[in-house]
Amino acid sequence: LYLVLSYSRCRDRIPVELRYRWLRGTLEDMGSRASVILLEDGLKTKNSSWEEWEIGRDYVMKQIGAPVDVVFAGSDYLGANIYERLYSCPVEYVGREETDNISSTAIQKFPLGTGWNAIAPRFREWYRKRVLIAGVESTGKTTLTEFLAKHYKTRRQLELGREICESCYGETRMLPADYIKILHRHAAAEELMFERAEGKVVFTDTDAIATLWFAKLAPFFDKEIKTIERLAWATIYANKYDLILFLEPTVPFVQDGWRKEISKRERMANSEKLKQMYLDGYKGICPIVFIDEVSYKDRERAALCQVEKLLGSGSL
Predict the structure, then answer these.
(1) For position 314, what pLDDT does the model report?
(2) Could you give the CA distance from residue 178 to residue 200 in angstroms, rounded to a whole number?
(3) How many domains does the chain have?
(4) Cβ neighbours, 10 Å, residue 91
(5) Residue 293's domain is classified under what CATH number?
(6) Count of CB atoms within 10 A of residue 68's CB?
(7) Of 104, 127, 192, 257, which shows the fewest CB atoms inside 10 Å?
(8) Rounded to whole angstroms, how far apart are CA atoms 217 and 226?
(9) What percentage of the chain's residues is helix, strand, coil (to nearest 5)?
(10) CA 294 → CA 50, 118, 159, 309, distances in Å?
(11) In terms of domains, do 101 and 140 share one?
């Protein structure tokens, strides 16, 4: 079996390297009996001249090195007689009945809607959305992250900073190396969570900006802060969030035994500073929605509304 992957870096939205890996992974069970042939046409549109079809055919035949017994093609080519003329062999057309009445065009148009079940699990990572839950302490980030993950039956990544902070017996005893450890571990855990997910969306509680925020509050030297800052921003720019939900500190403060007691005014001021870091860090990269409802239930409803908008868009 030879699977021809026709591509163009001028036209395709998904990198050919990724598409190749997907297809090779799909054919793994066939071992050496299956191959993927990369055929670059370099065109900006799918409209090809007959001469270009023949050039592609010649390249494919050279890679195979033997006559072709049968060609499988999409039903949109039915009646065009293109493959019959090119390969001089029987052609089997894969129609919509064989694909659960879903066309590739429909999948591309609404991958998170009607097309989702028609996408092979291996390919869904490209379309899956990432949502970040952010905010200062005691705004319900963990609770909301857990709720959303359960609602959408998907995976979530909780912040690792709390765990490491507790292992240090409080943030006042944390060293610069501890913040670097948080950045490394959280980024690795989040990426693994995303790869293992099966749903249309995943949720993350806190990111590198929050870690950098807490590091800047610590009494470290400028040199130490700059080291943390460089790693944090590198992590931030590598993240590909599709939506950030920033929780305003309008719910009551809850003392969990580790949080520092501060005034309401100071809490609001801290939130504004952290908010600005997110606005600066993700400007032009990812939309940020601010949730200021005063009850946890209202926050859940507001968050669900925003996530539904994200998934309902259906666009790439």
Answers:
(1) 44
(2) 33
(3) 2
(4) 18
(5) 3.40.50.300
(6) 17
(7) 257
(8) 13
(9) 50, 15, 35
(10) 65, 41, 23, 22
(11) no
- Single out the residue in 84, 112, 140 at which a domain terminates: 112
Task: State the residue range of the domain holding 43.
Answer: 2-112
CATH number of the domain enclosing 36: 3.40.50.620
Amino acid identity, position 110: F
pTM of the full predicted structure?
A: 0.84
Let me know: does 278 contact 209? Beta carbons within 8 Å: yes
Q: Which residue has the tokens 């925003």?
A: 306
Neighbours of 184 (CB within 10 A): 13
Residues 27 and 154 in one domain: no
Verify that 283 and 139 share a domain, yes or no: yes
pLDDT at 100: 58
| pLDDT given for residue 257 in this prediction | 55
295: number of Cβ within 10 Å:
12
Which parts of the chain register pLDDT below 70? 96-102, 253-262, 313-316
Same domain (yes/no): 43, 135: no
pLDDT in tens, 24-34: 988 889 988 99
Residues 59 and 142 in one domain: no
Q: What is the pLDDT of residue 245?
A: 98
Q: Are residues 70 and 197 in the same domain?
A: no
Cα 204 from Cα 190, distance rounded (Å): 7
**Collapsing DSSP states into helix, strand and coil, what is residue 220?**
coil
